[in-house]
Each structure stands twice: as C-alpha cells, then as structure tokens.
TrEMBL record:
This is DNA polymerase IV. Mg(2+) binds at residues 9, 115. Keywords: Cytoplasm, DNA damage, DNA repair, DNA replication, DNA-binding, DNA-directed DNA polymerase, Magnesium, Metal-binding, Mutator protein, Nucleotidyltransferase, Transferase. The keyword DNA repair applies. Its main location: cytoplasm. GO terms for biological process: DNA repair; DNA-templated DNA replication; error-prone translesion synthesis. The active site is at residue 116. GO terms for cellular component: cytoplasm. It is found in: Cytoplasm. It is an enzyme of class 2 (transferase). Poorly processive, error-prone DNA polymerase involved in untargeted mutagenesis. Copies undamaged DNA at stalled replication forks, which arise in vivo from mismatched or misaligned primer ends. These misaligned primers can be extended by PolIV. Exhibits no 3'-5' exonuclease (proofreading) activity. May be involved in translesional synthesis, in conjunction with the beta clamp from PolIII. Gene3D superfamilies: 3.30.70.270, 3.40.1170.60, 5' to 3' exonuclease, C-terminal subdomain, DNA polymerase, Y-family, little finger domain.
Length: 358
C-alpha cells in the first residue's frame, strides 16, 4: 500500500473570512492588517485577497505601501483597497472549525499553522481513493464554512505541501509517487522548503536556479558546497521525505507586537504598551489551552530599525500574568537607559513573545 499524504492550506485565509462575513467586501480588493491611517500607518499587511495581490500587496507588505498601491489603483480607475483590522479570535475559531471538518475524514491530522494541516490518508489504499476522500473534505469546508482550501496530495509531506501551493486558490493537485521527481525537476529551487531568498541568491550565483540544475551535483559536491543542509536537499530534490505526520501540533510560541504611531522613549508609554502586549499574549496562551510558559522575550526595534530581542527562561513554569509582566518589565528597562540604548534612540516597535508553553 503506497504512503499517501494530503496537505491543505486555506486560500487568503483572514481575508476570505472577512469577505464571507461582510458581503459588501466581495469582489473588491481587501487587505487585513494594521490601520493604514491614510498612508501614515506603520504596521504591516497580515494578508491580502487575490484582487489586492494583483496590486502587488502581500503578507508583510508595509501597510503604508499597500495604501500607496491602492491610491495608484484608484487613479488608474480601478477599485481602491478596503482595509480591515485583524480579528484573531474570529480567525482562530474558524481555524478550529476547519480542522474539525478535516479530522472527521482523516485519522491522523497534523495542524501546521492556523490555516494548514497535513493528513496521512494512506488508509484509502490508492491515490484515486485518497483523492476522492480529500475532495469530500474540500467540499465540506466549502459547504459548512463557505471557504475554499487548496489541496495537495503526494507520497510524502514535502510533495503534498508543494502540490497544495501549485494551483492556488481553490486548487486540487495530485502527484503520485511515480510522478514526484519529475514534478519537482522544473520548479525553482525556492519551491524546496528551507531554501529561502538568501540561499536562492547564493545558488543563482553558481548558476543554479531550478531543482533539476541542483540535481546535477553529486552527494560529495552537495556536501562540500553546502554542508549538512546540502545533504538534506539532496534527498528533498529527489522527492524523498520520510518525516511522519504527527498528530500533536502545538504553537511553539505566541507573540504580539505593536508599531507605535510615533517613535518614543517615553517610559510611561512604553511600560504601559508592554503590559498590554504581555496581557494579550498571556490571554491567548490560556485561550489556546495552555496554563504556563517558561520563556518570555521582548523585541525592541529602534527608530533606525535596529532590532534586538532579549529573553528570560524561568527555572519553573510561570502560571500568572503578573509574573510575566514583571519579567517583561525587567527585560525592557535596560532599553530605556544607556545599558541597552547607549545612543538613547527612540523606540519604533515593541514585541512580546512567550515560549516553552506548558
Ligand atoms: P498563508 O496561508 O501564508 O496565507 P493566506 O492563507 O492568506 O493566503 P494563501 O492563499 O496564499 O494561502 O497564511 C495564513 C494566514 O496567516 C493569513 O491569512 C494571515 C496570516 N499571516 C500573517 O498574519 N502574516 C504573514 O506574514 C503570513 C504569511 C500569514
Ligand atoms: Mg493560506
């Protein structure tokens, strides 16, 4: 019996939920993210629907840039972007509902982020039978949640994940074990998880752009040029991946951050914002079913965009919000004076993260 893995990923997830819930948004470019504040907003885009992506707006685009692209579209006579703020609680609820639908049909499901999961559907016995099963999941998500997912089916997690991204939105892509290597060969090396923009540039400098070009290197060459990573890629670019689908996904960390309307070194403002971020993160920790964490961290971005993270790990798990808040404050204080801020720079952004969740 072949190993058969499915990966699904919701399309433009936060934006699709907002379009679903507000009919007036439908058919228009939509961005979910920070407040654009007439172009002066300082946060980023969480996600853009496909109409807004056509304007060049994507996840992590500065919200001010998104605003500018929207204004340019307006001047061209195209519809401007509608901007909506993030409602994490709502998206987490929809995520749970979607995962529950998939779980009805898939015995072992590994949630990989808020809007994607892997499932082991080998039990279906064949790629045809697995495809039928997965089409029924996709149809159930559409009828029960009125949202589309893109689905990829492959002989392992690697191929399933790449396949699900192949024909977004509303995609359905099946790659059998026999097809897997040929499926990967013509793709950009960027398709391989773990190869990001920096590695892509490094490879391009060696005239390697496609998976099939990287395949020309022998194991010894891969090892000599790229070390341990090279050995991992050697298997991946040949469509080999035996990582298991693991049921128990847990968020590794929970974080929140805020970009201020104005850079500041006002300790009262900073301490207050830090407390709010800390409370927000702790509330989400509880909401997601945890009751303690062991590591807390803060991120400080200065006016010149230098970004520093400082973390503290407790010997024992911490269960109460006030203790988290006290520790965050201890981490922040050196940034308010010369210890961590010798040039007395103003602060642009504060972030709070909790890790080692229990
Ligand atoms: P993705 O699945 O990466 O993106 P998406 O679902 O919006 O669009 P696609 O159709 O390409 O899958 O991420 C899921 C959600 O996670 C996304 O809707 C918003 C959130 N997110 C952020 O908040 N910031 C980010 O940088 C990214 C990548 C996602
Ligand atoms: Mg998605």
């Amino acid at each position: 019996m072949p190993r058969i893995i499915v990966h699904f990923d919701m399309d433009a997830f936060y934006a699709a939920i907002e379009e679903r819930d507000t009919p007036a948004f439908r058919g228009l470019p939509l961005v979910v993210g920070a407040d654009p504040a007439q172009g002066r907003g300082r946060g980023v885009v969480s996600t853009a629907n496909y109409k807004a992506r056509a304007y060049g707006i994507h996840s992590a685009t500065p919200i001010s840039t998104a605003w500018r692209f929207s204004e340019e579209a307006r001047r061209r006579g195209q519809p401007p972007v509608t901007f909506v703020s993030v409602d994490m609680r709502k998206y987490a609820g929809v995520s749970s509902a979607v995962m529950a639908i998939a779980r009805r049909a898939v015995p072992v499901l590994e949630q990989a982020s808020i809007d994607e999961a892997y499932g082991d559907v080998s039990g279906a016995g064949s790629f045809e039978a697995a495809s039928e099963l997965c089409r029924s999941i996709k149809a159930a998500i559409l009828s029960e949640e009125r949202l589309t997912a893109s689905v990829g089916i492959g002989p392992n997690k690697l191929i399933a994940k790449i396949a699900s991204g192949m024909h977004k939105p509303d995609g359905f892509t099946v790659v059998t074990e026999a097809e897997a290597e040929a499926f990967l060969a013509p793709l950009s090396v960027r398709a391989i998880p773990g190869i990001g923009p920096k590695t892509e540039a490094l490879l391009a400098a060696q005239h390697i752009r496609l998976v099939e070009e990287l395949k020309q290197l022998s194991p010894a060459e891969m090892d000599a040029r790229f070390g341990k990573r090279g050995r991992e890629w050697y298997a991946k670019i040949r469509a080999q991946d035996d990582s298991p689908v693991e049921e128990h996904w847990e968020p590794k960390s929970i974080s929140e951050q805020e970009t201020f309307d104005e850079d500041t070194l006002d300790s009262q403002i900073l301490v207050e914002r830090l407390s709010q971020l800390g409370d927000g993160v702790f509330a989400r920790l509880v909401e997601e079913g945890f009751d303690a964490c062991r590591t807390v961290a803060i991120t400080v971005r200065f006016a010149d965009f230098t970004t520093v993270t400082r973390a503290h790990t407790f010997p024992d798990p911490v269960r109460d919000g006030p203790a988290v808040r006290r520790e965050l404050l201890k981490l922040l204080l050196p940034f308010l004076d010369r210890r961590e801020n010798p040039r007395r720079q103003r602060i642009r952004l504060l972030g709070v993260r909790v890790e080692k969740l229990q």
